[in-house]
Amino acid sequence: MTQKAVARARRVVTALSLFLVLALVSAFILDRLFPFPVDRLEPAPSTRVLDRNGKSLRYFLAPDGMWRFPVTLDEVSPDLVTALIHSEDRHFRHHPGVNPLAVIRAMWSNLRHGRVVSGASTIPMQVARMADPHPRTFGTKLVEALRALQLSAHYSKEQILTWYVNLAPFGGNVVGVGAASWQYFGKKPDALSLGEIALLSVLPRSPSRYNPLKNPEAALKVRNQVLKRFARDGVFSEARIAESQSRPLLASRAAVPQAAPHFCRWLRSRLPEQAVLRSSLDKRMQGIVESAIASRLEELRRAAIGSVAVVVLHTRTREILAYAGSPDFWDTARQGQVDNALSRRSPGSTLKPFLYALAFDQGHLTPGSMLLDVPTDFGGYMPENYGQDFQGLISARMALATSLNVPAARLLARCGLAPFHDLLRRGGLTTLDRPAAHYGLSLALGGCEVRLLELVNLYATLGAGGEYRPVRPLAGGDRHGGTQIISPEASAMVLDILAATRRPEMSDSWEFTVGAPAVAWKTGTSFGHRDAWAAGLSQELAIGVWAGNPDGSQCKNISGTLHAGPLLFDLFRMLSPGTTSLPRFAAPALRRIPVCALSGHRPGPACPTTLTQAIAGVTSLPVCTLHKRIFVDPETGLRLHGDCLLSRTAREETALIWPAELVAYRMAQGAPLPGLPKVHPDCPDVPEEKGPLIQSPSARTPYLIRPDAPPEFQRLALVAAPGTGAAVHYWYVDGRYVGHASPETPCFVTLEPGRHSASVTDDLGRGSQIHFVVRELADPQRGTALRDAARPR
């Protein structure tokens, strides 16, 4: 070789080297300046909600309105992967993103026709086009080629193929093989037949033309053509291809699952970006719940109750097993799409068990403790019982079992509003979003708002020995991290009370019914007669039922016992058949202690005793003050005291010193309680115990009211001269509690014409009563009042 030739060769090599170096540097810089938009290769998926066993519940379109079910290559039939590669890019596993021979062939064809008629698109080039779609031009093809090279330089063949199978268009709003397999054949992409695979392998080329739903003949024809090509190229065995060609192409639009629509909508709103949600729901149990609701619906509608919601939780794990927000999601006339399981509603008496649990944990109450159920004025707030009557003295067990309001309000005043509010908040009631003082003592009676889902979880907390856990809408997950908000001992005492409550579906002797599931349960009826509630626990399930109208309208005579309780027990019989025990958990500090059989306090020397449950080291009861040992003259029954006992024969007896409020109530009802016997006159060392003496009103003179004067300016003063040592006067008019005050402070009432009674009792249990008359002045212009009844203040 001549010297000139050598020099020329060196210059060519140098130029080529510089070109390659510049090309590599340019490629590196461009790659850094214009990275591949990988985020566009993973658009938001459709959402599939499955039950705990993998059964479909509901599918949701992706935000852009597409059906898009991303899959991994492991979830796709290997035959489908082979068919796609053979149909779209036979040399996919060998080229760097662009097939040079195919590019040269396509360029020659396009130049001959003067337009793009052949694309030579490899799978990486198609993925690049899916990431940034543009009209087909020479320029865009060049960009796609460069992007394909860039994509192949950074990602594996498996990753690129995964993107392709998930982004390929399959007609209409169907994207990816996951959605196409389901939409056209109702199958998963790993369960397709060879004939179905053949069609899907070419469907992305012309989704409209080969759509098996719209053009079944064209789809069948192209399927057979593809199968012949597979046979010719030896892709699959001739026997399989022959068998596939002999089969018809059976394609039908898949029905979109619509089970548990309220639950699925709520779950998807919590996890909107997750493609597959394997929920905790049990599809079988969901069907049972919906059937049970339907069976009770006509009966409820006759009572003007338009909707029902049910939530079923697993007591220990807090998994949501069934969830119905209304009887029919699609019933727009009855607002079926309103999710009543999440609506904020007044809970009625359903929070009372947790107040009693708090009192047990604070140590000043046991199930055997006696509570007062008498008219009580809390600074202008006077709660009433559901039946508008009063029991007088009642045990905590019976007060909770019969859901009395007044003992609950008095108990809350004793326990403290803030601790109870805090307990409910820690128990997951997020709707208690105002300070405790906002709710007042009505909090114990339902003067707040709760959600059914959160309320059922609060009951599940009781069934788990007082350990709170958040609800779990997904299967599996963390089973740890609970928070103890109620002691196991207090939980056990409350469950024992609730389990003994009479059940609506059985007679009074229901506990002897063979096969009846053991259930601890509570009902509630909201303020304004708008909501009926029932919540209960079996050994493993916590179930809650709400009944009412979604718009909050009133339902006359609505009752938790009548309208929610029966459905609750329908569900327990269906879901927990044969369950004979309540939730089990350790309560090591639970003891049985002796208490006074009447007061429930620590027994004094004169008390008859009984046993009740208590918490060792926590329960601290006062000594009973109801029973008092006295001595009486056996002939007269008069009380003896001091030196009288030395000169007379005496008999020892036990007297009852009743609470003053109870004495006042019973006196006002005309059924006074017996007090201490009077002191024998021969016992001068005992001072006479005088009770209050009513001074106003008077029984001697009628009171006149003027019809032309406002009632608030004609109020009658209630005044009594106090007895020895009295600190409080309790006033009743016509058997109705009107208030209490110190002896020197009068109470005022407005009265209608007629005969009336007034009674007063002091805090020592002494009292008096009178009858008086109120008349209306017939001629206000000429008449004069005999006594001034109006003492405005």
From TrEMBL:
One of its GO terms (cellular component) is outer membrane-bounded periplasmic space. Residues 65-230 form the Glycosyl transferase family domain. Residues 687-772 form the Penicillin-binding C-terminal domain. Pathway: Cell wall biogenesis; peptidoglycan biosynthesis. GO terms for biological process: peptidoglycan biosynthetic process; proteolysis. It is an enzyme of class 2 (transferase). It catalyses: [GlcNAc-(1->4)-Mur2Ac(oyl-L-Ala-gamma-D-Glu-L-Lys-D-Ala-D-Ala)](n)-di-trans,octa-cis-undecaprenyl diphosphate + beta-D-GlcNAc-(1->4)-Mur2Ac(oyl-L-Ala-gamma-D-Glu-L-Lys-D-Ala-D-Ala)-di-trans,octa-cis-undecaprenyl diphosphate = [GlcNAc-(1->4)-Mur2Ac(oyl-L-Ala-gamma-D-Glu-L-Lys-D-Ala-D-Ala)](n+1)-di-trans,octa-cis-undecaprenyl diphosphate + di-trans,octa-cis-undecaprenyl diphosphate + H(+). Residues 309-526 form the Penicillin-binding protein transpeptidase domain. Pfam families: BiPBP_C, Transgly, Transpeptidase. It comes from the Bacteria. One of its GO terms (molecular function) is peptidoglycan glycosyltransferase activity. InterPro entries: Beta-lactam/transpept-like, Glyco_trans_51, Glycosyltr_51/Transpeptidase, Lysozyme-like_dom_sf, PBP_1c, PBP_C, PBP_transglycosylase, PCN-bd_Tpept. The keyword Glycosyltransferase applies. Keywords: Carboxypeptidase, Glycosyltransferase, Hydrolase, Multifunctional enzyme, Protease, Transferase. Its EC number is 2.4.99.28. NCBIfam families: PBP_1c (TIGR02073). In the C-terminal section; belongs to the transpeptidase family. In the N-terminal section; belongs to the glycosyltransferase 51 family. This is peptidoglycan glycosyltransferase. It comes from Desulfomicrobium orale DSM 12838.
